[in-house]
Structure prediction request, 155 residues.
Amino acid sequence: TGVQTCALPIWSRRGSSTPLVLAFAAIVLLLVAVVVDASAAYLARQRLDALADGAALQGADLGAQGADAYAGGLATGDLAISRAEAEAAVRSYLRASGAALDHPGLQATVRVDGDRLVVELVAPVDLPLHLPGAPEQPTVRAVGSAVIDPEAGPE
Prediction:
């Protein structure tokens, strides 16, 4: 008339938390890797932003000089940006700042849009940790611009 209970020995229940701990540890490690890589990409983009802004300012300053800018004379209106002069100034700025050494594979695009000079920089970023499914060679992009006559306002 007695009821028998089948109690599992303590040692058989002990391992049940191990997979849970391992799964949480893997998730934490994955989150740390994502944060480290995202921080590295963010800092690389910040450095490129500073380079793009400096290059745009230099390009707008020196691009408004030269024969193309003064062809119509100063009395006829605002200075025009010479694309060739601006591109040469941007390349010179990037070379003088050591941008190619800091960002191997750096590509620069210079565009003149009315009285605005736009510089776009694209460079591969070397992430400290390589996550599965992430691009093999991720890139960061920065755009800087400068205007010849900031008082003219947007059109």
Residues 18-63 form the longest helix (46 residues).
